[in-house]
Amino acid sequence: MSTKALEKHLEPLKPFLAKKGITEICINQPKVIFVEKNGVFTRHEVEALEFSFLEALANLIAEFNHKPFPCPLLSGYLPTGERIQCIMSPACEKDKIIYSIRCHSRRDMRLQDYQKAGVFDDYAAIKENIYHKTIADLKTLHEQKDIFGFLKLAIQSKKNLIISGGTGTGKTTFLNACLKLIPHTERLITLEDTREVNIKQPNTVNLLFNEEDEQITASKLFKACLRLRPDRLFLSELRGSEAWSFLRAANSGHPGSMSTVHADTPQGCFKQLVFMMQQAGSTSSEENLHTYIKSIIPIVIQLKRSTNPTQFVEVAEIYFNSL
Predict the structure, then answer these.
(1) Which residues form the Bacterial type II secretion system protein E domain (predicted)?
(2) Domain made up of 131-320: CATH architecture
(3) pLDDT at 106
(4) Which regions of the chain are under pLDDT 70?
(5) For the purposes of burial, counting CB atoms within 10 Å of the CB of 136, is it exposed (0-12), middle (13-18) or buried (19 or more)?
């Protein structure tokens, strides 16, 4: 009975589920759907996807997958085998229910087919040349102290970065300014305990964690978040064990992720991150943790309060690991 009810309720989504070449179907808010095909998202309006419809759909998915309902983080499968992740309040805003459906690949490919399509042609050389040129350009901009040019290239070339600063240095405000340089074609996800990050890009999801609620801790939300098909991840501030989850996520296919840390120097920022990872239960040595963090975070922007009344803040230092 639950299978038939779920299949009937999925009618408004079936045109997208059946369409060839679609890899991901994302719902960030009622009546709006983002569909990925060939790596590009397109926005569609579907009037049937009202909040009540999305809530009923979550109930049917839970029943079909033998999961409890309501549940803020619900994962499972559709009757036709597609993987689905659903997120509800209090893990997101009360007026939203978030979905991501991973569609089946209908192509039956052989390696010879990839070769004929030119997938392997000069791949390594092209990628390596682009990488080295970007690093060289960043190094030049860094040496020239062209901070805007450096930040613009770093963000658009998807380098992970941390904004560090003491109390009242405007770290989140600076982070929000950096986010404006990200292309509007990307899918962005924020994870916060309080809404502070302000993203203008259309394909955006805002998630809320609470370390006092075992259902929606930062680590559980990060795990669910990776099933939402993010291009980049953002936290307003790293303060504790969520640092471990953030670094793992940034290092597992989500380059260009950003956050802030309360510290007075870039080296102090790295020390804070080491301490947070130790808090999260890491038994690695401090030296190994330091090396691991620096391999993931090549850039730290150090802010300080300005003595000039006409300035909001000063960039005191930029740490850049060009290796």
Answers:
(1) 135-296
(2) 3-Layer(aba) Sandwich (3.40)
(3) 67
(4) 1, 106, 122-128
(5) exposed
